[in-house]
């Protein structure tokens, strides 16, 4: 056995290397233990030629080792040389099997170990934790003694596995060493994080390879990937080198094939190889056996750590990806800092301290950054599962704000997709739009704004500060990352959404306590466009709340499906069966990809028994639906043509994106005289560039949907805008500001073809200057002759789309300019009445 080292560092990734270099620079006795024959196994396993990023760019690097963005081989070579130059004590082929304290027993600390036997049974032993020094036993039987231990082992050795049928077939792999090894293959990369994107780019990088590469991402956005990677991916897609499938999951894998579940149904595709990059989880068994406790029982939870990275086992420190910080610069800074802390430098502040200080500067109380982070983490429920290190990264994308009593935080019907958490004080929700004095209070720890986050709909109520309060505003991007990284946060957002949806929809004097059992039994399910949630004639008594997206209700009459109603997010369906029993009386299908909350009838029925008012309310609403069903069926013979027309128009509008719109332009062809005043007015209002193509688009019966922005609930165009130039305005309009760089991502992402790239014309002169001197373009959109003669050929193109004439009085110019009233703008809740406006049938 060797002498006792001051520090034993396990793992030579960026965090471990940086820690060892700092220990060497300070002259501390140390050993760096690496189980392989090379340094930085995580970077070593990157695909050959991979560009290693140095983000966040604003973060200062403290490490004794240099690091700049560059190729994998360059970074590894530099670290090999500098590790040798610093005389770091490295021991390779040193795999650790156990870490056990050898000092005095730690009072009150009992550790349980589980041993699996060959017969399948397990044996649980309890043992008293011992204080440092620690004995590290290696795979070869040798031992190392150390006063302190730094765990920098990362998580890459414990990847998330494919759980679908066929996930263990030999052509499924979880690592890509060299993309050049694979040629002329159909390859699917599963996972939309940085690793998945980089692997896909590497496999599609050389056209001579002949690979057909498809990236599959279960979400609709690349919320966890670096911006630079997303931009490179989109460029590769636009060049035809990569296909991207969003909102897609793997159903099964077969030799030579993959079966995918997409928003439009099942797809079976040829597949020679699958690269699964779905993230990884901490090697929990080993870490817990060292005496380190985790923040929760979730598989993705991280160890409990102090502000100086010390775990619940005294003298064992955790840094890097195992601590929840996967970015290389963060890891290297932690490696540097942890050795400083171990050496007694307790005054050292983290490298991101100045950035966070600026964020908290305007708040009252004079707290330190660490105190603010802990206050937010401990006081806001959805943040409880985060470590102090995760909180630091989280706050880089969020804002803490102070409000005075009476301040309005947001107003009813205002657009917004951010989530708010209450750290101190109380806010008041104005539940009655006609009487602001009727409010419901939300206190410390609670969240609000979840409707905008989940459904994309406008704010459902005005919320103002009831007392002086401190709130954390979480951007949609940060909220999605939070819910992905912290399972407890995702569960809490789902619970709150379910509870408040029930309270808002059903009212009837319900309280959160009344809903406890129903909420506990609820489950969130995703429905692809066109998928039936409820089928007419089937058995079942579950109730469904539309969480996001929208539904349409149909009834079979005379052997044909007749459109009954449109059900937007925030509504419910399925109540008839739970009240009166019997089979389902209509079919409910998703108009667009939608999330629903399923509440089992057996959990909802006791609520009806306990709350007669709720039953009466549901019966009243059910009665109106029953009357509509009966009326349409009774008139099916005499009004068959009208019913068919109504159903056809309604289905047509849903198929053309009205189901996810917040504002869509419709033209009644029975009134339109083809004067083009709508296009001219649009051009006059936007520097001569019309945002409207009246003749383009599709028509059914008397209704025409021209090519004009629908201002979607979750705008597709916003999904990948590098300069963040696309915003939702105060009245719900989606607009593009002057920071647009003309990349074209929004045009490519829009499924409705309403965005185009065009050169911005020169500023328009005064009318007299045009009339007398011919300066500038005239009224209306500039013609081809003007563009050819005067337009700057070097002028960059920018994205052009409808902005609903934001900032102009009187509303959209296209509607104002229509002399016959043919042009109207509607939201999804209004379009059914439009569908009934059959001018020919009365």
TrEMBL record:
Would you say which domain of life the source belongs to?
A: Bacteria
- Identify the residues that the record assigns to the Cyclic nucleotide-binding domain, covering every copy: 382-500, 506-625
SMART domains on file:
cNMP
Q: Which SUPFAM superfamilies match?
A: 4Fe-4S ferredoxins (SSF54862), cAMP-binding domain-like (SSF51206), FAD/NAD(P)-binding domain (SSF51905)
Q: Which Pfam families match?
A: cNMP_binding, Fer4_11, Pyr_redox_2
Every 4Fe-4S ferredoxin-type domain range: 663-695, 732-760, 796-829
Keyword terms, alphabetized: 4Fe-4S, Electron transport, Iron, Iron-sulfur, Metal-binding, Transport
GO MF, one term, reads: oxidoreductase activity
Cite the PANTHER family for this sequence: DIMETHYLSULFOXIDE REDUCTASE CHAIN B, OXIDOREDUCTASE
Q: Could you identify this protein by its name? A: CRP-like cAMP-binding protein/Fe-S-cluster-containing hydrogenase component 2/thioredoxin reductase
Organism in which the protein naturally occurs? Polymorphobacter multimanifer
């Amino acid at each position: 056995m060797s002498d006792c080292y001051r520090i034993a560092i396990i793992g030579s990734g960026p965090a471990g290397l940086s820690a060892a270099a700092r220990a060497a620079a300070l002259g501390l006795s140390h050993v760096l233990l690496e189980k392989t024959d090379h340094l930085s196994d995580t970077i070593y396993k990157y695909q050959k030629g991979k560009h290693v990023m140095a983000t966040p760019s604003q973060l200062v690097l403290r490490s004794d080792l240099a690091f700049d963005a560059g190729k994998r081989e360059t970074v590894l070579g530099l670290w090999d040389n500098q590790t040798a130059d610093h005389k770091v004590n490295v021991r390779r082929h040193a795999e650790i099997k156990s870490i056990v304290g050898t000092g005095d027993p730690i009072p009150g600390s009992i550790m349980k170990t589980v041993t699996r036997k060959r017969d399948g049974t397990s044996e649980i032993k309890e043992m008293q934790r011992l204080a440092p020094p620690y004995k590290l036993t290696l795979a070869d039987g040798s031992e190392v003694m150390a006063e302190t231990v730094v765990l920098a082992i990362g998580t890459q050795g414990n990847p998330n596995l494919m759980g679908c049928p066929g996930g263990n077939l030999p052509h499924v792999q979880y690592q890509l060493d060299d993309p050049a090894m694979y040629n002329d293959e159909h390859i699917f990369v599963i996972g939309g994080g940085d690793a998945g994107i980089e692997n896909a780019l590497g496999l599609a990088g050389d056209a001579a390879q002949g690979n057909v590469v498809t990236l599959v991402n279960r979400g609709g956005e690349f919320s966890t990937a670096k911006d630079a990677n997303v931009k490179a991916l989109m460029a590769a897609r636009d060049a035809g080198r990569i296909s991207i499938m969003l909102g897609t999951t793997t159903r099964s894998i077969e030799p030579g094939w993959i079966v995918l579940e997409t928003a439009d149904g099942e797809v079976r595709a040829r597949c020679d190889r699958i690269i699964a990059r779905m993230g990884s989880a901490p090697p929990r068994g080993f870490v817990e056996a060292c005496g380190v406790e985790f923040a929760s029982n979730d598989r993705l939870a991280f160890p409990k750590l102090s502000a100086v990275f010390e775990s619940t086992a005294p003298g064992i420190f955790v840094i890097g990806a195992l601590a929840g910080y996967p970015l290389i610069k963060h890891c290297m800074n932690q490696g540097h800092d942890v050795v400083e802390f171990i050496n007694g430098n307790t005054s050292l502040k983290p490298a991101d301290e100045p950035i966070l200080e600026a964020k908290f500067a305007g708040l009252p109380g004079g707290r330190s950054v660490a105190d603010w982070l802990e206050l937010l983490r401990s006081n806001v429920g959805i943040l409880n599962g985060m470590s102090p290190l995760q909180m630091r990264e989280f706050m880089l994308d969020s804002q803490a704000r102070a409000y005075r009593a009476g301040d309005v935080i947001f107003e009813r019907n205002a657009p917004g997709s951010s989530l708010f958490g209450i750290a101190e004080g109380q806010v008041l929700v104005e539940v009655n739009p006609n009487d602001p004095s009727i409010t419901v209070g939300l206190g410390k720890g609670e969240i609000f704004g979840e409707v905008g986050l989940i459904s994309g709909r406008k704010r459902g109520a005005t919320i103002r500060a009831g007392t002086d309060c401190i709130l954390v505003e979480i951007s949609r991007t940060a909220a999605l990352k939070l819910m992905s990284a912290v399972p407890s946060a995702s569960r809490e957002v789902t619970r709150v959404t379910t509870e408040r949806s029930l309270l808002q929809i059903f009212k009837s004097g319900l309280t959160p306590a009344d809903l406890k059992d129903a909420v506990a039994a609820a489950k969130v399910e995703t429905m692809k466009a066109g998928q039936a949630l409820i089928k007419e004639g089937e058995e079942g008594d579950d109730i469904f709340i539309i969480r996001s997206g929208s539904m349409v209700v149909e009834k079979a009459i005379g052997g044909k499906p007749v459109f009954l109603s449109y059900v937007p997010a925030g509504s419910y369906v399925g109540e008839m069966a739970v009240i009166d029993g019997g089979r389902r009386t209509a079919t409910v299908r998703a108009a667009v990809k939608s999330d629903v909350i399923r509440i089992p009838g057996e959990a909802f029925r006791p609520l009806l028994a306990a709350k007669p008012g709720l039953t009466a309310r549901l019966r009243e609403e059910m009665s109106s639906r029953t009357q509509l069903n009966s009326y349409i069926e009774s008139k099916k013979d005499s009004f068959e043509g009208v019913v068919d027309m109504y159903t056809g128009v309604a289905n047509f509008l849903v198929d053309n994106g009205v189901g996810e719109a917040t504002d869509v332009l419709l033209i009644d062809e029975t009134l339109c005289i083809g004067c083009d005043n709508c296009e001219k007015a649009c051009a006059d209002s936007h520097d001569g560039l019309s945002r409207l193509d009246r003749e383009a688009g599709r028509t059914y019966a008397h209704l025409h949907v021209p090519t004009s922005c629908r201002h979607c609930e979750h705008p597709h165009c916003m999904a990948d805008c590098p300069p963040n130039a696309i915003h939702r305005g105060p009245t719900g309009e989606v607009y593009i500001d002057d920071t647009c760089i003309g990349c074209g991502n929004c045009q490519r992402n829009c499924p409705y073809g309403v965005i185009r790239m065009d050169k911005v014309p020169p500023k328009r002169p005064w009318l007299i200057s045009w009339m007398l001197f011919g300066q500038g373009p005239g009224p209306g959109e500039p013609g081809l002759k003007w563009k050819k003669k005067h337009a700057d050929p070097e002028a960059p193109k920018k994205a052009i789309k409808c902005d609903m004439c934001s900032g102009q009085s009187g509303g959209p110019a296209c509607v104002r300019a229509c002399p016959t009233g043919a042009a109207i703008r509607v939201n999804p809740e209004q379009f059914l009445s439009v569908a009934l406006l059959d001018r020919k049938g009365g």
